[in-house]
Specification:
The chain is of the alpha+beta class and 115 residues long. The protein has 3 helices and 3 strands. It has one domain (13-114). Helix 3 links the parallel strand 2 and strand 3 (110-114).
């Protein structure tokens, strides 16, 4: 820029991807509040009601991931909000935990199941 030259940016698809990401934009404060609510209520219930169910399972977790992306090209900031449910073990335990989570953990997020 000091030399008066234009900065070249590679990748035409970058702007299109950012526009797609902006379409699912969420309110960051609302998302953070929902995650805090999960931690304070459903998480405690899940742990107390299903601690024994999860015993002996190599993987049994439910985690929220909130990722915000800023696009310097002027597109809106996008928020990606996902609930990962990773359950590895006997099928009856997976079914029990999946059923409980499906009934009790709801919100404006994408559920990503890995079993």
């Amino acid at each position: 820029m000091l030399a008066g030259k234009t900065i070249e940016v590679e990748g035409e698809g970058k702007k299109e991807e950012a526009e797609d990401a902006g379409k699912s934009n969420l309110d960051s404060a609302a998302v953070n509040s929902a995650v805090d609510g999960f931690r304070d209520t459903q998480l405690k219930n899940l742990q107390s009601e299903h601690k024994e169910t999860a015993k002996g399972m190599p993987r049994a977790f439910c985690v929220f991931v909130v990722q915000e992306k800023f696009d310097s090209d002027g597109n809106p900031t996008s928020t990606d909000y996902k609930n990962y449910r990773v359950l590895v073990g006997p099928q009856d335990k997976i079914d029990t935990l999946n059923k409980w989570m499906g009934e009790h953990i709801k919100g404006d997020f994408e559920v990503v199941e890995r079993t």
